[in-house]
Write a structure and sequence with these properties.
293 residues, mainly beta
Length: 293
C-alpha cells in the first residue's frame, strides 16, 4: 500500500502512487521521491519494499541519504537497454544503501547501474545484478569518474556491496570502476561474473585502499586499468586480503608504480578463460615499481 501525502510530510514513501510491482512504469514516482527527499531538512528518505520499473532515476541532491529496507527488497528494475539506471551527475556528499538494481540483460546496450562524477559518495550494502552486453563495452555495476579529464575525485566509498554480471555475450564487464580516484576506500565487496576486472582502479588513481575483496567466475579479481594517453597509471595504492573462486587471475597492474599488493589468493580451478594465462600478479614492464608481499 502506498500512502499519498504531501511530499514534505513523508519523504520515506512514494507519494505519487508508485505501483512497485515490477511491471508498471514507476519512473515519475521515483523522481517525485527524489524531489521529496531533497526538500527535507535532513535530506534523507527510505525507499520502501517493492520492485520499481524505470528507465532511469533523477540525480539525488548533494548531501542527501537514500536508503532501502534491504537489498532484494527495495529494487530498481531497468526497462530500457543502453541506459544507466541512476546518473548522479556532479553532486557531492550522497549516501546510498540497502537497495538493489536489476539491469535486465538484453540483446543490446551499454549500461551502468550507477554512474557518478562527484566526491564524497558512499555506497553501502548495494546489490547490482545482470549487467552485460553481447559485444563491445558491457558496462558495470558502479562507475565513478571525474567530470574533467586530468582531475581527481576523492572521498569515495564502495563497501559491503555485491555485483553480479551477465556474461552470456562477449561484452566487457567490470564489477565496479573507480576512475582517477584519490583517498578512497573499497572493502567488503563481492563480484561475480565480471569478464574483465571484478574490482578496478582506473587511469591515474592514487592513494586508495582496497581490502577484504572477493570474486567468483571472472577475469582478474583486481585490476589497475589504463586507457587515457598521458596518464602514468595507478600509483601509491594498497591492495590487501583478496581472494577469488574460479578466476583467471589475482591482480593485474596494467600501468602504475609504488603500489603494495599483499595477501592475494585465487582458485584457478575451472576458470572461465577470458584471459589466456593465469597469474597471481601480472604487471607489465611499465608497472615494475610495485611491491608484492
Amino acid at each position: 500500500v502506498f500512502v499519498t501525502a504531501a511530499a514534505a510530510d513523508f519523504p520515506d514513501v512514494f507519494v505519487s502512487g508508485a505501483a512497485g510491482n515490477g511491471t508498471t512504469d514507476d519512473e515519475a514516482s521515483l523522481d517525485a521521491f527524489i524531489a521529496a527527499v531533497s526538500n527535507q531538512t535532513d535530506r534523507a528518505g527510505t525507499l520502501q519494499t517493492g520492485t520499481y520499473l524505470t528507465t532511469n532515476v533523477n540525480a539525488p541532491t548533494a548531501q542527501s541519504t537514500i536508503r532501502g529496507v534491504g537489498p532484494n527488497r527495495s529494487i530498481l528494475k531497468r526497462d530500457t537497454d543502453g541506459v544507466n539506471v541512476w546518473d548522479f551527475g556532479d553532486v557531492d556528499y550522497v549516501t546510498i544503501s540497502d537497495l538493489s538494481i536489476e539491469m535486465e540483460y538484453a540483446a543490446a546496450g551499454v549500461g551502468h547501474g550507477i554512474s557518478a562524477l562527484g566526491e564524497n559518495l558512499t555506497f553501502d550494502r548495494v546489490e547490482i545484478n545482470d549487467f552485460g552486453a553481447p559485444s563491445g563495452d558491457g558496462g558495470s555495476g558502479i562507475l565513478l569518474y571525474p567530470a574533467v579529464a586530468g582531475t581527481h575525485r576523492s572521498g569515495l566509498r564502495i563497501t559491503n556491496c555485491k555485483m553480479v554480471g551477465n556474461v552470456t555475450g562477449t561484452g566487457d564487464t567490470f564489477g565496479y570502476i573507480m576512475d582517477a580516484t584519490k583517498h578512497s576506500f573499497m572493502y567488503g565487496n563481492h563480484v561475480e561474473a565480471a569478464r574483465n576486472y571484478s574490482h578496478e582502479l582506473k587511469d591515474d588513481a592514487k592513494y586508495n585502499a582496497m581490502f577484504g575483496l572477493t570474486a567468483k567466475s571472472g577475469g582478474y579479481i583486481v585490476g589497475f586499468g589504463q586507457q587515457t594517453a598521458g596518464d602514468d597509471g595507478a600509483d601509491y595504492n594498497v591492495v590487501a586480503a583478496v581472494t577469488g573462486e574460479a578466476m583467471d587471475g589475482g591482480v593485474f597492474i596494467d600501468k602504475g608504480n609504488y603500489n603494495v599488493v599483499t595477501g592475494v589468493v585465487f582458485d584457478g580451478t575451472s576458470p572461465p578463460g577470458y584471459y589466456g594465462n593465469q597469474h597471481g600478479l601480472k604487471a607489465p614492464q611499465r608497472a615494475t615499481s610495485s611491491l608484492v608481499c
